[in-house]
Amino acid sequence: MSKKHSPAYLRALVDAVAEFEAALREFLTMHDPNTFARGVLPAVYRREGVADAEYAASQRRVEIASGRAVAAVAITGTRYEVQGMGVVDPVAAWSTILGPKPVLEPENILSACGQMLGRLEVHIAEAEANAVPSVSAEAMHPLVWGAARAMWRDGHYRQAVAGAAEALVGQLKARTGRNGIAETALWQETFSERPPETGKPRLRWPGNPTDRTVRSMNEGLRSITAGVQMTIRNAAAHETGQWTLVEASERLAVLSLVARWLETCVIEEV
């Protein structure tokens, strides 16, 4: 399944086809059907008394809606085989109902709309079944995404990650009240297994410190936080080349996870 056939895209096409059908039905109310020499004379005739401005506005709505809905024809394969004309796109050919020798009748076009809506429902079900779960950068921890957003949207992914890493360190400094220490050392001391000292608080995973999971989290935090500082923050700050979207997304996700852990930890101080 290509990206443009995602469930969201297909739902947008459903809306587009429904909009086209509604606009066409409204436009047809301004006409009387032709019951004489069908296939030779126009399929419909404009009713007497319909104001020019009203008629033009309604026709314009159909034209715009048809442009939005035409992509659904290729995806659903909804076409007509017309003698002497070959394969006909029912959306693109809608306006022929107004002229001599119309390619299709109004009921053909409305029927095609129903078919497209039904087939799109099937495509949506298939797309949802095959969809790969994804997480956008906007879903990252607010601290991380807030610091990365501006650079990220401009395509400066490495700088965005660097900004997010700095924001994370800033949050650590705010929680511990420590500013006069190198960042890597600050992470190491903050999650040190040693008891807190005056002016050197510790962060701990909440819960009974003898619990196996709590103990495992505290040991892991000691390693990963300093490791993130050295491998992600320092690389983002000191490298000069750009990172790809995938490279930056992987690193931003790690920073987001650390930010959530940091938020969960409780502070111990003397």
Could you characterize the architecture of this molecule?
The chain is mainly alpha-helical and 270 residues long. It folds into 2 domains: 3-130, no CATH class; 137-268, no CATH class. Helix content is 59%, strand content 7%. It has 9 helices and 6 strands; from the N terminus they run αββααββααααβααβ. The strands form 3 sheets. It has a two-stranded antiparallel ribbon. A hairpin with a 3-residue loop joins strand 3 and strand 4. Helix 1 (7-28) runs antiparallel to helix 2, helix 5 (142-153) packs antiparallel against helix 6 and helix 6 packs across helix 8 (212-238). The longest helix is centred in the last third of the chain and has 27 residues, at 212-238. The chain is rod-shaped.
Write the layout of secondary structure elements.
Elements: H1 7-28, E1 31-33, E2 44-46, H2 52-69, H3 71-76, E3 80-82, E4 86-88, H4 106-130, H5 142-153, H6 157-176, H7 183-190, E5 202-204, H8 212-238, H9 245-264, E6 266-268
Antiparallel strand pairs: 1-2, 3-4, 5-6
Helix pairs in contact: 1-2, 1-4, 5-6, 5-9, 6-7, 6-8, 6-9, 7-8, 8-9
